[in-house]
Amino acid sequence: MTPVATHPEAVPGDDRALRWVTQAGLFEFIGEIAHAPDALQALVDDGTLVRVEVEPAAVLTSIGLGRTWRDEGARVRTAICTALETPLMWVARDPGELDDIVRMAVVDAIAGDSGKFIRSHGGEVELVSVHGGDVQVRLGGACEHCPAFAFTLSSRFEADVRARCPRVGKVKSIQGGACDTTPSGPKSWIGRVTARRG
Amino acid sequence: MHPGFDHGLTVAPPDGGATTRGATVRLALVGSPNSGKTTLFNALTGMHAKTGNYPGVTVARYEGSTRVNGIAVVVEDLPGTYSLDPISIDEEIVADRLDPNRSHESAADVALSTAPDGLLVTMDATVLHRSLGLLAQVLQTEIPTCVVVTFTDELARRQGTLDFDALRRALGVPVVTVVAGRNSDLAALRGLLANPSDWDAPIVLPPTATRELSAWVGSVLAAARYEVPQIDERTRKVDAVLLHPWWGSLIFFATMFAFFQVIFTVAAPLQDGIETFFAYLGSLVDTYVSNPWLGSFLSDALLGGVGGVLVFVPQIALLFLMISVLEGIGYMSRAAFLMDKVMSTAGLEGRAFVALLSSLACAIPGIMATRTLPSARDRLATMIAAPLMTCSARLPVYILLIGLLVPTGAGWGPVSTQGAVMFGLYLAGAVAAMAAAWIASHVGRGAGPLLPFYMEMPPYRMPSVRSVATSVWGSCKTFLQKIGKIILGTTIVLWLLLNLPAQNDAEMQAAGIDTSNAAATSEHVLNNSYAAGVGKFVEPVFDPLGFDWRINIGVVASLAAREVFVATLGQVAAAQDPENPSTALQEMTVVDGPRASQPLFTAPVVAALLAFFIFALQCVSTIAVLRRESGSWKWPTIAFTSYFALAWVAAFAANRIVGALM
What we know:
Chain A is of the alpha+beta class.
């Protein structure tokens, strides 16, 4: 079996925290955990880790006081790698609803690259509602009356949300009306060529 | 041409380390072969690179310097490596440099005994997944590291994707992108060079365990939205033809054939220009230099000898231009792949072909390249074969002799006969090298198993003008330096031997020479010179080949370096007819013996000379390197004597066969 992909990333503004990025949709819940698989739970119990929180495509951890990532990093990685192999053994403190997970994915997408792209040329995007896995956003600013509106919504924004949370339903904009939300169609070259030329 | 041959190490001043004074920042370039490492090195350091050796081994060490914001930055180009678990000596050096405590020998060189202040790791964007394993190992050293992603232009062309900001976040180290040394790209990198201690470092080092490592690599690539580019359609289509067992081989030979045609047809006008220039200099000497000794030295030794070799600079430049273009395009790897089968008949692997291919430039880098061969048997066999490959020093000799043998312009349609003969000579050298390798690997004891042969097929790329120009200029510079050192020195010694003992008028009149006839007196001096004595002394050896004592002088002198043969004949001819040495060579006649007053350079004699030069090991530098690389005088002695015997027999056969055909 191929191992579950993961790598750590720094959390800006929080030295004690480390975000273990992993594949989206691995967990059926988000939020703090009540209990983790044994390898990881042992580190929580001995105080190495003071926080373990599941995000749509990551596990957020914080190191205990008086300990450093430099010393404990390798141990934590081994525990995380082992625990990620059995996602069903992770128990949420508050299982939450599908909508909570979707909402977090949408918020992340708006704060992340696709939101940045929309804002970069005067567009605006905000979350209106999440219901039953379906998402309503408002695309405004330069996006109104833009011929590439539907493209941005489905190929860029929805694709971004779906990468963070594969269980997301339809994604609509309340100004643009419903758009076709069948999982992303043939990828266009514009979306693919993101490699910059320096 | 002789990377690392020079023992002069670039030793940093003992207090020059950044750790002690912060005055100099020492950086090292790490990366797999073909990852654009050397292009980056050239772009960062310009032409200010120095070469030397790593202590104890003959792997070339390249170091260059640059200044960033007034801070001196020394950049070292480490050998290409796929991992820090060393298999070859090159990889061993990289591992040692990154962890000086690892080295068993106590390095006397201060610059080598401390780890670099920072590392630049080059990663080819088209095969990023392969570079991350090496990067993980490099990050383990905890030396500040900056990742330089190369070939992103090609990634974009192949419609691959890579998000650099995401890659930077995932790796936790600075990531910059540099496309083929583009100056605009370099600015961002240069800004980072001066202060490696400020570079971001990963909070948690990458893992070492295989499973965790593969989880890390996969996750970093996914985070950076890296999509493995589809196999380049263009490369795939071209390879279907070029690597085809029949078409590929046919095209390979056609390419090589065209290669040698170009050397003759394109370089000829340039060569004529240089010849005209030297003739003009000669007329200046005649007009303005009245002292006969100085005049003879200037026109015979300098213009006739050294100038005679300088004439071949266009050909040398062209040879290296074509080699580096073929290399840059990516064709050389295909050639090596095609040759792997042929090589295996000689008991060698394709990697040995790369070593032999470098020997087309010069046997010395070829012999050095054998260090990458894992088996000692292969190493020795390839080393012994390398001097038989037609090196660039043979080129001037061949061109001169072919010029005497085949009239210019002869040929069938666009194909020049001169080029065809040249192709044949190169082919003969290659076949001889293969045969020698076969013998050496079968005679060599302790035959090990043939290791599997892996070779990277880089996608076809347009070579950058800059890297081609650097390589051509570097090769011409080495050739000119060789002329300046070995050839000039030998030429001066030869000029003395050709003109001493001095003859005064009384002695000459006593010998019945008309002292008012300049040609007659110089011929008399030449005939009675010390050099003539040497030439006549060895006559019994070379007489069966049709050589007279004047050719013998050239052959004996060429044992130092092959080009000296051209310089010697230039001097001898210049002494006989200072106005027009090249015609003098054509019209030179045998002085005494049964063939007296017949033309000297007949077809059988020229054929014998060509055959002799194919095989003979006439290069002191090669012998010295063979001695160093094989660890004893045994192999150089065997090679020198057996190749001399082979050369003699081949020359004898050529003389008789061509003689019978005439």
